[in-house]
Amino acid sequence: MATPFETLNDSSKEFIASAMKSVSALTQGLQTIANEAADYSKKSFEESSVLIEKLASIKSPEQAFETQSVFSKKAYEAFVAQATKFGELYADLAKEAYKPYETAVAKVAK
Predict the structure, then answer these.
(1) Which sign does the torsion angle of CA 64, 69, 74, 79 carry?
(2) Rounded to whole angstroms, what are the CA distances from 77 to 83, 99, 103?
(3) What is the pLDDT along the chain (110 residues), one digit of tens a residue?
(4) Contact status, residue 77 vs residue 24, Cβ threshold 8 Å
(5) Is 64 left (phi over 0), alpha (psi -120 to 50) or beta?
(6) Per residue, what are the HEC states of the chain?
(7) Gyration radius of the chain's alpha carbons
(8) Using CA atoms, how far apart are residues 43 and 52, in angstroms rounded to an integer?
(9) Using CA atoms, how far apart are residues 6 and 8, in angstroms rounded to an integer?
(10) Among 13, 33, 25, 15, residue whose Cα is nearest residue 99
(11) Angle formed by the axes of helices 4-57 and 61-109, to 10°?
């Protein structure tokens, strides 16, 4: 039969292992989110630059308004899609970071 100190030692090792797995999942998830944010920012900047070039060559206010309207609609749709993707990434991050603790919680619940 294990002594209380051996049980505590085993539990501590298991908790540390779970914590390290959780931190690893957290790090990977945050890196994915950072890469996604950088890609979105780069794409958004490029599209804005193209808009400025188009607006510089337009002669009539009607064309400028139409070009800006089209750009605004596309930018809004891209933002909503990106926000949805970020929401999914954060939800996946939370799930992955919690996974290592599921077994420890199940053991404690018994």
Answers:
(1) positive
(2) 10, 33, 41
(3) 567 767 767 777 888 888 888 899 999 999 999 999 999 999 999 999 999 999 999 989 999 999 999 999 999 999 999 999 999 999 999 999 888 878 777 776 66
(4) no
(5) alpha
(6) CCCHHHHHHHHHHHHHHHHHHHHHHHHHHHHHHHHHHHHHHHHHHHHHHHHHHHHHHCCCHHHHHHHHHHHHHHHHHHHHHHHHHHHHHHHHHHHHHHHHHHHHHHHHHC
(7) 25
(8) 14
(9) 5
(10) 25
(11) 170
Q: Which amino acid type is present at position 30?
A: L
Tokens of 56: 């510089």
